[in-house]
Structure formats: C-alpha cells, structure tokens
Amino acid sequence: MSKKYSIFHIEGGLGKHVAATAIAKSIKKTHPTRELLVICAYPEVFLNLSFVDRVYAIGNTPYFYQDYIEGKDSLMFKHEPYFTTDHINKKLPLIENWSKLYDLKYKKEKPELIFNSVQKDVGIQAWKRDKPVAVLQTNGGPLSDQQLPYSWTRDMPYSVALDIADQLNKAGFHVIQVCRTGSQHLPNVEVVDKSMTNMELFSMLLVSQKRVFIDSCLQHAAAALGLQSTVLWIGTSPKVFGYESHLNVVADTPDGICLPDSYLFDYQFTGTPYECPYLDTIKFDQQKIFELINKQK
Hints:
Blueprint: E1 4-9, H1 14-30, E2 35-40, E3 54-57, H2 64-69, E4 73-77, H3 85-88, H4 94-101, H5 117-127, E5 133-137, H6 158-170, E6 174-178, E7 190-192, H7 198-203, E8 208-214, H8 217-224, E9 230-233, H9 238-241, E10 247-250, H10 286-295
Parallel strand pairs: 1-2, 1-4, 2-3, 5-6, 5-8, 6-7, 8-9, 9-10
Helix pairs in contact: 1-4, 1-8
C-alpha cells in the first residue's frame, strides 16, 4: 500500500512554532493514517514529538516534490492563520483559529515540547543555581539581528521590569533576565542575551520556580511544559496569543488612540516608535502583577 502524507508548513517566529505543535498534533489526530511531515524555520521544536514523522528546515528540502507530492496522496497545510477574519477581528485564540482554518477536529489541543535525555540533563545542569530561579523575560523577538532594542508593543517597560526584579530578589530568588542583545540590562540579575539553541533556552524553564514573561517564545514554551506563568501584555492580546493556564495582566489602555498607518492589525510586533499611543509611561497594575506571581502554581 502506498503511503499517504500530511504536509504542515510553518513560517514565523519561535513562539508561533511552539504554538504550532498543537496544530501538528491535531493534524495527526484528524488524519491518523497519514505520515506527518513538518517543514519549518525551527525544526528542533518538533524533533522529539511522537506524532511527527519527519521534520525539514525551510530551504533544506531536497527531492521533496518528487518524494512526497508528485503522484502521491498528500494533503497540504500551509495557509497563514494571521490573515483570517477571525484572527484579524480577534475572535478566536490562535490555535483554535488555526485549527478551524485547516478544518481539523479541534479538541483543545495544547502545545507540547519534549526534551531528549541529553537536552534535559545538560539544560538542568546549565541553569541550576544556588537559590530558587525566577525567569524574567523583558524583551522578545530574535536575540540578534533585530533593528530596535526595545519594542513597545511587547517588551516590558524598564521601570516595571526593575520593580519586578527587585521584588523577586528581596524574596530570595536568583533572577535570570532574558532579553535581546542591545536591550537594557537590569541590575543585580543574571542577564541572558546571547544566541543559543532553542532547546537550551527552553531548558531554563525546567529549573524555574517563578516565571514572568511578555508575549514571546517563553510564554508559549511554558504553556507547552505545563508551567503556569505571569504574562504582561501591551499591544497584543492574551485572548489571541495567550493561554488560560497563565496569569495574564494587560496594560492600561490610553485614551484617544490614533492609528494612521494600521491596515489589517492595530500595531506591528516590532513596535514602530511613532505608532506608540502612550504619551506617558506604559502602566500596569503592579500590585496585581505581584499577587499573580505569588499565586503561580
């Protein structure tokens, strides 16, 4: 009997790839007799997942058409969920909307990350500290090669991050700040802003007792690992990109928002400075943030 294939192609950032593991799982459940092939920008996210049969990096697919498409029984899953009506109107969470786009049998699939034994052991040894570890991601996006060191739409305001780090230090935690190269460093914390493998970065979560994130890859990874986190939101929505398992805090919305250059979305992820509607500092209910950090399970 000739083989049948489901081909799942993903583009975008690391956090989106982690969320996409839930879609890969749903594709396999909906089409269980087909081999699932994943083509993506971050292959290591999918390598250890039992429901994925083979992973290819985008641009490294020799003979792919002949092997899996020409004359074969293959289903293609390559549509972009960001440009659907439900996503643009913020009607559905990303994973649910993505499932709907592909006509999958959505059963509240969650993202999943699996470390192999070496990744787990090396990661735990690399990130273990003398005190309990609190991971604080203040800046998101690529660790390098991004034009702006600070993106107001997603990154944590420095004053807010400083206050959180101070409170965690006073509570006896070893604070690890995750940020991009060139981002503003906090005092009295361990700063991680260098390039590393994605699984090395994610393995930091395996030793963490407290987690405070922005809308970036670590909040997706924590959800995939079942680690409740406190997540701060500014220009993106927890309803769309967040998880019910997390403790979400949304910044106060300014009055009189003007969006002259917006087309399909309100703000760009990169945080174009002139689009920022905040004339004063970006404000959060910081008492609520600390309450939710203490509430983390």
